[in-house]
Structures are given as C-alpha cells and as structure tokens.
Design a protein that fits this description.
Layout (H helix, E strand, L loop, with lengths): L5 H4 L12 H8 L9 H5 L6 H9 L3 H9 L5 H7 L6 H4 L11 H11 L13 E5 L3 H12 L3 E5 L8 H4 L8 H13 L3 E3 L9 H5 L4 E4 L5 E2 L12 E3 H11 L9 E5 L3 H12 L3 E5 L4 H7 L2 H10 L2 E3 L3 E6 L6 E5 L3 E5 L2 E4 L3 E2 L31 E3 L2 H4 L4 H20 L2 H9 L18
Helix pairs in contact: 2-8, 4-5, 4-8, 5-8, 6-8, 9-18, 13-14, 14-16
C-alpha cells in the first residue's frame, strides 16, 4: 500500500495510506485464487463474498463489485480502511500460509471509493422504524431497512453522524471525506437523520408505540479510567476525549514540545499517540502486553507506522502511579524493576465501558456487565425494540458491529412482515430461522 512520505506524515493529519490506483487494484485482484471453499469469507465477521467482488473487479465491473460487497457490508470505503484485515479475511487467505495474502482491504477500499451508487427500487412495506444511535451498527440497520422499503428515522444524540467512526478515528486513518461519501449513500435512500436528539432518554415503551420497530445501537461511550493513584490529577485525559476534540472541533489538547505518556497500545492508544506526534509532542506509549501479544491484537504495520513517525513503545510495563502536586509531572512504572518518566500530560486508553447514567439501562433488561440483553433475534424485553453492536456484545470492531446490524435488520423485517397473530407467537418463542422470504436487495436476501 503506498504511504504518504514520512516527513509529511509527522506534521499533518492527511491520510497515511494512499490507496491503490486502478492498475494496482487489478494487479492485486489477479492474485486471488478464487478458491472453491474461500477461507477469507469465513474470516470476515460480515461474511462478505470476497471472491465474488474480486471477480467482478477483474472483469472491469467496479459498480457490480460494490453491489456484491454491500449485500453484506454497506460501508466498503470505511471497512476497507480500518478493518483488522490481517486478523480476519487476509489472515485466513490461503496465500498467507506461503507468503503474502491478497490485500483484500486495499481492493475493497478501491471499490468503495470508485464505484457509483445506483439506488435500487424499494419494496415498499408501509412500515416505519426508528434507529437510536448512528454508529456502524445503527447505520447498517438503517441502510438495510431502507433498502427493504421501510421508512427510517435515525436519532443521534450528538451533532456528528457516524458514532465512533466519525469522532473516534483520526483523519490520518479514516478521512472525513470517506465517511461523508458513505453517509451520502444513506441520504440517497431517503433515510431521515435527526442529530442532537435525545430520543433515547424518552420512555422506550412510549416510543415503541410510535414505530413498528426500533433498533438501539448506542455503543459504549465511556472511557475506562485506570484504577491507580494520581489518575485524577490535572493534565490526565482519556484518549477518546483527545480524539473527539480533534475530530469535532480541531482543538489540540497537546502543545508542541510537551512530553506525553500514553497508557495503552491498542488501536485507540496508537491513534492517540500518533495524533500527539502530529501536534509536536515527544510521545512514549506504555502497555502491559508483551510485544508478541500486542502484535496479536493490533497489526504490526500499525506499530511500524507509529514508530517511524516517532512514537516510542515500552512493552510489558505496568503503570503503578502518577505523581504531581496539582498537575501530573511523572509516571511511575515497573517491569521487573521500577522506572520513572517525567511528563507534561498523560493520556489513558485502556478500553471503553457502558455509561452508568445511560437511561436505556433503566428500561431494557441488561446483563451483569451492563450490556443490553437480547434474544437470538436481537429482541429486547420490549417486543418491537431490538438492539445490537457494542451495547449488546461489548467493545468490538466496526465490522462486528456491521455484521450484527445486518442480522438485526433481517430479524426486524421478519418481525414487521409477520401477521399480528404470528407476531405475538414469535414474541414468545425465539425465531430459529431469520431468513426473509422476500428478495428485497439486488434480488438477493440481505
């Protein structure tokens, strides 16, 4: 994958990975073996027909390739950039056993960026649905419901549509233009978006009377705070706060020349580290994971890009405490011996959790870990209210949210199509087969 020159990367938030040209995408597509039993599909949480869309591209049919992808994943431009391909589809590619796998993510991104979006005819169902939350699961549900002919309204509590993919990923990994193009496709489906809406704070029982079906995809919006002394000192901030401020207002929370320690080296921690580098900081990223385990959860190339830009990593390190009078001035750690790093700011990135003040928890039956409890059809305790994504299974990847959103949309359409008597019966027994009997998207079941 061609990269932005290193010296430019250090001082700009321009996208680092530049993407394939048409010729490069075709050359990479020709490496695909078109396996009869494609392991890459099994490796994809959304089960995208990877050989199918690559075959269309090889024949010069970019729009058709995009249609194949969108049967399973509505957002190829986004997922082509930020999916963990090396852990999923590319990791399962048969060519990975003997050398380099097909760069499926790069091909998917090319298709998503260059295909047109013909709006298919709708199968008007005369139904209306609400989606609460505009993250990847909610937007996926909205897309597939709209394609089925359902009138959809998406309620978003902030002014930024897209959830974590809009405010939680920096531009150098996922430019706003790429997100905007994907959202434009949703507007073409005549989905109604209501930003700055607090529908989730209303009584879901009352809201459920206004719509045939509701989907809750509110994610997990609260950063976990490490339980260590000094965590409440000034200049100790969460990585998500840093990234949200950058993405929504462009407000830098780091000054040039500052010494910054980032606690946590997952994708959020690395994104925060690389963002701080671009703001002129001296950055050290600490993680309790060994180097081997870290590379098993985050792609080695992401560490390599961060290191090239100037991030210093320390593995197998436990932060014991933060010290300072009012503001943090040092990080104390241990890894067999004790150490100390002088700092101006500390950023923590140790995961996300459910907000205890989330009013939805007062309405929906939840599991012990704070997740919303659903049955196999993604139904909550309120029969026509469904839920999916991180608020159900906890923090996972974007493609996992897309996969659950697609499955939930199928279950919601199945629910809305049932006659009243059958619907009441279905509320008592979990539906074992969610397959929809209508060909409503590109003449295939979604």
């Amino acid at each position: 994958m061609p990269l932005l020159p290193l010296e430019e990367r250090k001082t700009t938030f321009k996208e680092v990975e530049l993407g394939f040209t048409h010729e490069q995408a075709l050359e990479e597509a020709m490496r695909c073996l078109q396996c009869a039993n494609p392991k890459c599909v099994e490796g994809c949480p959304a089960r995208v027909n990877i050989p199918g869309f690559i075959k269309e591209l090889r024949q010069g049919k970019i729009d058709e390739a995009a249609q194949v992808i969108r049967q399973s994943n509505f957002f190829p431009s986004i997922c082509g950039r930020i999916c963990q391909h090396e852990r999923q589809c590319e990791g399962a590619c048969i060519l990975a056993k003997k050398g380099e796998p097909v760069q499926i993510g790069g091909i998917e991104r090319f298709v998503g960026d260059h295909a047109s979006f013909p709006v298919p005819e709708k199968n008007l169902l005369g139904k209306k649905a609400a989606v609460i939350g505009s993250g990847p699961s909610g937007l996926t549900v909205a897309a597939y419901l709209a394609l089925a002919g359902v009138s959809v309204t998406v309620y978003e509590g902030t002014n930024a549509l897209g959830g974590v993919i809009k405010y939680g990923v920096p531009d150098f990994r996922l430019p706003k233009d790429a997100i905007g193009n994907e959202l434009e496709h949703l507007h073409k489906l005549e989905i109604d978006f209501e930003p700055n809406s607090k529908k989730g704070e209303e009584s879901l029982e009352e809201l459920s009377k206004q719509f045939d079906a509701i989907f809750v995809g509110t994610g997990v919006g609260k950063s976990k705070k490490p339980n260590i002394p000094g965590i409440d000192l000034k200049n100790v901030i969460s990585a998500m706060k840093l990234l949200v401020n950058l993405n929504q207002s462009g407000l830098p929370m780091i000054s040039p020349g500052e010494k910054v320690v980032v606690m946590g080296a997952g994708y959020v921690g690395i994104d925060a580290s690389r963002s701080a580098i671009r703001m002129g900081a001296d950055v050290t990223c600490l993680t309790v994971a060994s180097k081997e385990n870290a590379y098993n959860s985050v792609a080695e190339k992401d560490y390599k890009e961060a290191e090239d830009e100037g991030v210093k990593f320390m593995f197998s390190v436990k932060v014991d405490r933060l010290e300072g009078k009012e503001k943090v001035d040092s990080v104390h750690y241990s890894n067999g011996f004790e150490g100390k790093i002088a700092v101006d700011k500390v950023i923590y990135a140790v995961g996300q959790e459910h907000d205890d003040e989330d009013s939805l928890r007062n309405t929906l039956r939840t599991k012990d870990d704070g997740c919303i409890k659903v049955d196999p059809n993604f139904q909550t305790v309120i029969p026509n209210v469904f839920a999916g994504g991180d608020c159900v299974h906890g923090p996972k990847t974007v493609i996992h949210a897309v996969a659950t959103g697609r499955q939930a949309a199928k279950a919601m359409i199945d629910y809305m199509l049932k006659p009243e008597n059958d619907r009441k019966a279905a509320e008592k027994d979990a539906v074992k087969n969610n397959k929809i009997g209508l060909n409503i998207i590109n003449n295939t079941d979604i």
